[in-house]
Amino acid sequence: MTPHAYVIGYPVKHSRSPQIHRYWLKHYDLAGSYDLAELTPDQLAPFIEKLRDDENAGTNVTLPYKQDVQPYLDEIDDDAKNVGAVNTIYKSHGKLLGTNTDVYGFLTHLSDGAPNWLEITNTVLIIGAGGAARAILSAMKKSSINNVYIANRTKPRAQILCDEIYPEASPIEMSEITSILATTDLIINTTSLGMIGQPPLELDLSALPEHSIVVDIVYSPLKTELLHQAEKRGLVTVDGLGMLLHQAVRGFELWFGTRPEVTDELRQIVEKSLETGS
To answer: Superfamily for 4-100+247-276?
Structure first.
């Protein structure tokens, strides 16, 4: 039986997931399909229930349904619980299960781009307190980084994030960033600032130590003003595209039974589609 997988959301046409998973299906010569499913809220529950059918392997979940799908699942794992969101649904032993692959995707890409990051990192600054920040704060907790700051425009929202995910982390105002940059080893922008159509993240990196690593999860454009600034200083930079690619690995393996590799060819294909908007 040919397994079918999907990505659900509203809207969902912007998703790069079909490009990634279809590449792997072809590369590994596997039977299967991966399709977009744009669902209105009233279509969500029936669609999730239909995933229990034998021919359906599961689905990725994007905005706005990462929390909404949870009541319809039999179980969610620790990664999904810690992040507070499900981005991948799969089946096992007759049950419909939810996980979150963003933690794995972020840590794998970070280790690829900055192999020594864990050895040199004592202090981490995460900018933003939205959904992506939840996954990255969970990743820092999983990596046992003790000194973590969450900077957000509204400090109470950052406080909620710390309370829910990692109470040892410290919420700060955006205006307080300059006071900790000199001791920051890893800085991660999780906001949409710097994305095409958005204002840049205005942050002076001159106080960062020379060994610091700068990460921006924005991947359109691939090189944001923040990363340009870091490169001018000779700092190690990590863009956002690899997180997108690596987070897809686990879902593909769960649905189609083969663990895929993130290759240079795949990255180039997705990069080109971002450049052309196709």
So the answer is: Leucine Dehydrogenase, chain A, domain 1 (3.40.50.10860)
pLDDT tens figures, 95-143 = 999 999 999 999 999 999 999 999 999 999 999 999 899 999 999 999 9
**What's the pTM?**
0.91
Do domains 4-100+247-276 and 104-239 share one topology? The answer is yes
pLDDT digits (tens, 9 = 90+) for 210-234: 999 999 999 888 899 999 999 999 9
Residue of 13, 26, 50, 66 with catalytic role: 66
Instruction: Give the start-to-end residue ranges of the domains of the chain.
Output: 4-100+247-276, 104-239
Annotated active-site residue 66? The verdict is yes
Tell me which fold the domain 104-239 belongs to: Rossmann fold (3.40.50)
* H helices, E strands: number in the chain: 10, 12
Hunting for tokens 């001018």 — which residue is that?
A: 232
**pLDDT tens digits for range 138-180:** 999 999 999 999 999 999 999 999 999 999 999 999 999 999 9
Helix (H) or strand (E) holding 33: strand 33-38
- Please give the average per-residue pLDDT across 37-43, as a whole number: 97
- What are the residues facing 88 on neighbouring strands? 60, 99
| Strand 4-9 relative to strand 95-99, pairing | unpaired
